[in-house]
């Protein structure tokens, strides 16, 4: 029994295989770098949005702590409301300044 003869592979086929491997590795490297940069940008934007939300929350709490509490007639009046009661507002001002 003799061994089967070894078949010669053409040089063009070998070059094509190595070229495809090189192109695939290059594409993978560039694509991974792009995804990493996008993830980093999203992380930075998310962190910025979180800080802005914390600042807004702190501003609201500060405004609440500085607002007068326990005063009689500490109502809020909306002058743009169609059912605005001017007499009630005048009585409120009169009670506040007398």
Automatic annotation (TrEMBL):
Gene Ontology annotations for the cellular component aspect, listed alphabetically: mitochondrial inner membrane; proton-transporting ATP synthase complex
Any one GO biological process: proton motive force-driven ATP synthesis
Location relative to the cell: Mitochondrion inner membrane
Pfam families reported for this sequence: ATP-synt_E
Subunit structure: F-type ATPases have 2 components, CF(1) - the catalytic core - and CF(0) - the membrane proton channel. CF(1) and CF(0) have multiple subunits.
Similarity field: Belongs to the ATPase e subunit family.
Alphabetical keyword list: Acetylation, ATP synthesis, CF(0), Hydrogen ion transport, Ion transport, Membrane, Mitochondrion, Mitochondrion inner membrane, Transport
Function recorded in the entry: Subunit e, of the mitochondrial membrane ATP synthase complex (F(1)F(0) ATP synthase or Complex V) that produces ATP from ADP in the presence of a proton gradient across the membrane which is generated by electron transport complexes of the respiratory chain. ATP synthase complex consist of a soluble F(1) head domain - the catalytic core - and a membrane F(1) domain - the membrane proton channel. These two domains are linked by a central stalk rotating inside the F(1) region and a stationary peripheral stalk.
InterPro entries, per the entry: ATP_synth_F0_esu_mt
Protein name according to UniProt: ATP synthase F(0) complex subunit e, mitochondrial
Region annotated Disordered, chain positions: 62-81
Any one GO molecular-function label of the UniProt entry: proton transmembrane transporter activity
Protein's organism: Coemansia thaxteri
Entry keyword annotation includes Mitochondrion: yes
PANTHER family: ATP SYNTHASE E CHAIN, MITOCHONDRIAL, ATP SYNTHASE SUBUNIT E, MITOCHONDRIAL
């Amino acid at each position: 029994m003799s061994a089967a003869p070894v078949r010669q592979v053409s040089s063009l086929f070998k070059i094509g295989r190595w070229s495809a491997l090189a192109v695939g590795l290059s594409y993978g490297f560039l694509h991974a770098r792009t995804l990493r940069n996008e993830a980093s940008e999203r992380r930075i934007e998310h962190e910025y949005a979180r800080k802005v939300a914390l600042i807004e929350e702190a501003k609201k709490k500060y405004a609440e702590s500085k607002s007068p509490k326990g005063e009689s007639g500490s109502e809020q009046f909306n002058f743009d409301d169609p059912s605005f009661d001017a007499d009630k507002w005048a009585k409120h001002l009169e009670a506040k300044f007398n």
